[in-house]
Amino acid sequence: MTGKISALDLGQGELSEATKTYFAKCEEKLGLVPNVLRAYAFDDKKLRAFTDMYNDLMLGESGLSKLEREMIAVAVSSINHCYYCLTAHGAAVRQLSGDPPLGEMMVMNFRAADLSPRQTAMLEFAVKLTQEPAKIAEADRAALRQAGFTDRDIWDIASTAAFFNMSNRVAAAIDMRPNDEYHAMAR
User: What is the C-alpha separation between 47 and 11, in angstroms, rounded?
Assistant: First the structure.
């Protein structure tokens, strides 16, 4: 990793043994510690809260596939122009789908991609929740149910979209930079 992680100089707090183990697992599985984790490392409690929520939403049990959750992350981040998340989660879409052009289309405009009606409905909902949250109505939830989503799935779509809206805003506020390695992944 080269350069600064963000525009803020918060240093790094004393990492707990659990965090050191988590970072080692990241190195082992990903070949890197994502800069978002390093950015939160100034406060172990904030880092744990972030990683607990992220891991639950993105890796936990859900009616949404891991790829679908990454697609939500990218669609939301595309609307918000979040450089960090588009780079990191665009790489995840490329990797999980085995389709590099899909990852690129998702970053630029998911509507250009050849998606299933289910995926399109999911992403349209996530985008509306991002752009016009006060305009979400029962018809939006009904469209998701019609596309085959359960009420629990709708919760997961909304929670994932909301998490990435928050993450995008923090990343923008501190000018968080993605790890250089993400640019070459799954191409």
Answer: 13
